[in-house]
Design brief:
24 strands, alpha/beta, single chain, 18% strand, six-stranded parallel β-sheet
């Protein structure tokens, strides 16, 4: 071993002081490293944005075919955080996608659409809207092609094929499958688990169809719960069969037969008229280029061309409410486990909207299973306040869900649109608590209690409700339910006697809601926007702008989200890595709210 001698004299500092200096140096170096990392992050973000802007600002070729990948995520809200920018994840919303397809129908530069789909995150209501947009595109005399290397993973490809069937030419890779296996609804029941660990759920609902807590109260369906899910499943299944049969020019009987035989080999699908061509994606692209003599262009480039327009133009505000309704601030994944509509954040956006001197009408896009009744009522009130202050109409567009608290918010609208397969209604309320006394007994833990007030411990998880507490709690539920039904009765001009047949927690599809008067029209974003223009007296051909809300965040806000949301992101990643189902966990977490849909999963 070689010996290295230092040319410097030995230090007179004690070993203790040396350690302190080392610690200080580590702290300083760590701080600089952190600052450097943040600075590098910002630089990367800036360069990414510059690079993206450069790509997106390229002029669209005069002969273009728009390329769409339906396996990409297009949420109702625009993704607006630093992480998605750095990852170059698409930041465009479902609204942007639908409007781009409609705009392309009348754009002479766009000759066709070339899409692909295999396993898509799109919801059923979104698929319905896209089907209509693609149909309108083809009515303009332009062609729409779609390719798949297999729809679904041996099953659960019904939604993918439902969308594909709207295209004029369907290509599939040989030796692949269409998982058009129909519709399956699953509900988690955890009462058995709770009994084993000594947890006693004590919840009450208004009324028998408000079944959100059935998952923790029972080990199986109640008759009303099963009745509702059968009604919903039948509506969805029949919609799929009818639309596929109409789009492909085959009988509904054949479609049902093929569903019962699925997953279908691509070769069998071709033989039965469900697809048009067996081939590879490159083969389809070659054919499209030959047919159109056009260049393939990503849909994002086309979306980026559509600017909001001059602030002096009449404004149609388009505001998205996506997620579970709660007090406080809004958030989107990955900053939270699922999207949250924060009542305080909505109030801020509405206040900013009110400052627009050219605001003529608001289109409120709701995609929410409900949540907190208090927060829902706050948002409802704030929308009404904007209406009164600005003297403008409000049009509601329902996405996949506008139920329970989400439906309550919709009562601020003057005209309600729902997609055919939107889930809405669920007019009801519930509440209660998990009683942990049995768990504490198992753990040999004893809780003492000293109360100052007869009902001071009403929400204590350490004991059941007393008789007086139970009476008070149920009285509170009665008051909320009465307020909910009175609000709907006035807004929809339905007598309370008639509403009783529609409420009590019942859930409706958009089609069913239209039949019973809970919504005004069956239609999507485009229909809602057209109605909004008419109500705002914007004449056909008159220039206007769509002002999108929530507004884009500043860089400072995005950085603050990253710092504040880091723990949540790491937690979600850990849960995923150990194999737990995030979707099911999020669904069960919604049970903390008093105005929310029951937890069930649609597989399609």
């Amino acid at each position: 071993m070689s010996e290295f001698k230092t040319p410097f004299p030995k230090s007179n500092y004690s070993k203790k002081k040396t350690n302190k200096i080392k610690i200080l140096l580590k702290v300083v170096i760590g701080a600089f490293a952190l600052m450097g990392a943040v600075f590098a992050l910002i630089l990367v973000g800036v360069f990414t944005l510059i690079g993206s802007a450069g790509k997106m600002n390229m002029p669209l070729p005069k002969q273009s075919v728009l390329v769409i990948n339906f396996d990409d995520y297009y949420g109702e809200s625009r993704s607006d955080d630093l992480l998605t920018e750095l990852a170059e994840v698409k930041q465009y919303s479902f609204y942007d996608l639908v409007q781009a397809i409609h705009s392309a129908a009348n754009d002479s530069r766009v000759k066709a659409i070339a899409a692909q789909i295999s396993s898509s995150p799109l919801g059923l209501a979104q698929i319905e809207e896209l089907r209509q947009a693609v149909a309108d595109f083809q009515k303009s005399g332009k062609k729409a092609y779609i390719f798949s290397a297999g729809m679904g993973n041996f099953g659960n490809g019904t939604g993918e094929y439902l969308l594909a069937s709207a295209f004029g030419e369907i290509w599939m890779q040989p030796n692949t499958d269409i998982g058009i296996t129909g519709v399956n609804i699953e509900v988690p029941f955890v009462r058995g688990l709770l009994d084993k660990i000594g947890v006693q759920p004590e919840f009450y609902a208004r009324h028998e169809y408000k079944t959100a807590m059935t998952s923790v109260m029972r080990e199986d369906f109640t008759p009303p719960y099963k009745e509702e899910l059968k009604k919903l499943g039948t509506s969805v299944f029949e919609n799929v069969v009818q639309n596929v049969a109409a789009s492909r020019g085959v009988s509904e009987k054949l479609v049902k037969k093929l569903i019962n035989e699925a997953p279908l080999a691509a070769e069998d699908a071709l033989q039965n008229g469900l697809i048009d061509v067996l081939g590879y994606r490159a083969d389809m692209e070659d054919k499209i280029k030959t047919d159109t003599d056009a260049e393939l262009v990503p849909i994002d480039a086309y979306i980026a061309e559509n600017r909001e327009g001059s602030s002096s133009l009449p404004a149609v505000a388009y505001m998205v409410l996506e997620g579970v309704i709660s007090e406080g601030t809004s958030s989107l994944p990955p900053m939270s486990s699922e999207a949250v509509i924060g009542a305080d954040s909505v109030a801020e956006e509405l206040e900013a909207m009110a400052k627009d001197e050219n605001l003529k009408v608001l289109v409120l896009r709701i995609n929410s299973p409900g949540g907190s009744y208090t927060a829902s009522k706050q948002i409802w009130h704030d929308v009404l306040r904007l209406k009164e202050k600005k003297k403008i109409p409000v049009v509601i567009s329902m996405g996949g869900y506008a139920a329970s608290g989400g439906y309550f918010v919709a009562m601020a609208g003057d005209r309600l649109f729902a997609d055919p397969l939107s889930l809405t209604g669920s007019i009801g309320v519930l509440g209660g608590k998990m009683v942990l006394s049995g768990l504490w007994q198992k753990l040999d833990v004893n809780w003492g209690e000293i109360k100052f007030g007869q009902n001071a411990g009403i929400l204590s998880a350490n004991r059941p409700f007393s008789d007086s507490e139970k009476a008070i709690f149920n009285k509170s539920l009665d008051k909320v339910y009465e307020d909910f039904t009175l609000t709907v009765s006035k807004a929809r001009n339905i007598s309370l006697a008639e509403l009783d047949k529609l409420a009590r927690g019942r859930v409706w599809t958009g089609v069913g809601a239209k039949e019973v008067g809970l919504v005004d029209e069956v239609g999507g974003i485009s229909e809602a926007l057209e109605a909004a223009k008419n109500m705002a007296e914007i004449k056909p051909g008159e220039p206007f702008r769509v002002a999108y809300y929530p507004r884009a965040k500043t860089l400072q806000q995005k950085l603050a989200e990253v710092v504040g949301g880091g723990t949540q992101i790491r937690t979600e990643r850990l849960i995923s890595e150990i194999g737990l189902d995030i979707q099911t966990i999020n669904m069960l977490k919604r049970l903390q709210y008093n105005a929310v849909l029951p937890p069930f999963l649609f597989h399609y």
